[in-house]
Write a structure and sequence with these properties.
This protein has 161 residues and is α/β, with parallel strands linked by helices. The chain is built from four helices and six strands.
């Protein structure tokens, strides 16, 4: 498993993790400070890296969007081309609270000892529960109401008859 630390995880944690045998790079080492969370997840997916972050709220939303859009894309490709398609998964997302550096290393060690591949999954660690998978499924969109008239094109006023 290869890990990438988001910019909110101290750079020093990367060195401590490497001392424990982890394959890991920090945002600072990769020159990704100030990069958007969307780009962090996309680049990690392209590089097959598991993202480690403290930014739970944003990455939970990104994970949900990834799943939702992927499923929709798969349905559209199947409907148009009559073939099964699959959007690639991200390599995984790990969310932890802010912890002292050595505690962060211990939490990561507990992950490696407990889980195999986590492609397309998001796991959250807390002192109370340890690692748990976020199973928040995307909510389906409500059916569109077709009884209302279509909006008029932008910049044009509807003409009365």
């Amino acid at each position: 498993m290869f890990f990438v630390l988001d910019e909110d995880v101290p750079h020093a944690v990367a060195a401590l993790l490497r001392q424990q045998g982890f394959e890991v790079q920090s945002a600072k080492e990769l020159g990704r400070l100030g990069v958007s969370d969307v780009q962090v997840l996309l680049q990690a997916a392209l590089d097959d890296q598991i993202v480690v972050t403290h930014n739970g709220r944003d990455f939970e939303l990104l994970h949900e969007a990834w799943i939702t859009w992927g499923r929709q894309w798969e349905r559209e490709v199947a409907a148009e081309n009559h073939v099964k398609a699959s959007l690639s998964h991200h390599a995984g997302i790990l969310i932890t609270p802010h912890l002292p550096n050595q505690a962060m290393v211990d939490v990561m060690a507990s992950f490696v000892g407990s889980y195999g591949p986590i492609a397309g999954r998001l796991l959250v660690w807390s002192a109370a529960t340890g690692w748990r998978e976020s199973r928040r499924e995307p909510r389906p969109m409500p059916a569109a109401q077709s009884s209302s008239p279509a909006p008029s094109p932008r910049g044009q006023q509807a003409q009365a008859t």
